[in-house]
Design brief:
The chain is of the alpha+beta class. It has four helices and five strands. The protein has one domain.
Length: 172
């Protein structure tokens, strides 16, 4: 009689069980949900930095102090220092206060938009960035980012969403 070599069913089940336990431990240790959150927050940081840098480069190219309305849509000219305005590229009025509440300022009015699509058409940005969808539902008309000009002339660009405990905003 010839004896066949191979694994028994019990041995196979034990190995599969060990592999499943190791995979479960690795999955919990890697925590993919927080990795996705971190990736979206990293994109938000990148976007707010890019928008603020493009505004400052536009300021330098136009040889002077940055004033709302220069090279931007007419809605930017009516902005009030200290108020937050959601960044948009809409040519018509949209409800800009949709789900944009930030720690230091709430975009309160439905007309509190600022159209910064001129940054893209003038070549300072490839496209106006859109916040990766977290709690809000963002589009090019409602980007999920806000802009505020402080009374001292500095500009703040921030994200309406942040999945980490810290607020995502840059100021120059």
């Amino acid at each position: 009689m010839q004896k066949q070599k191979g694994f028994t069913l019990l041995e196979l089940l034990i190995v599969i069980g060990i592999i499943a336990i190791l995979a479960g431990v690795a999955f919990v240790a890697l925590d993919p949900l927080s990795r996705f959150r971190d990736a979206r927050d990293a994109k938000r940081w990148s976007d707010v930095t890019a928008v603020l840098s493009s505004i400052k480069i536009d300021q330098v190219d136009n040889r002077g102090p940055y004033i709302y309305g220069v090279n931007f849509d007419a809605t930017a000219a009516a902005t009030v220092a200290g108020n937050a305005y959601q960044i948009s590229n809409a040519s018509t009025t949209v409800a800009c206060n949709t789900s944009c509440s930030v720690v230091d300022q709430t975009v309160a009015g439905a007309n509190d938009c600022v159209n910064l699509s001129g940054l893209a058409t003038e070549g300072y940005l490839s496209t106006l960035p859109v916040n990766p969808n977290g709690s809000g539902s963002w589009s090019s008309a409602l980007t999920g980012y806000y802009m505020r000009k402080n009374t001292n002339g500095s500009i703040v660009i921030g994200s309406c969403d942040a999945e980490s405990p810290s607020t995502i905003s840059v100021q120059r």
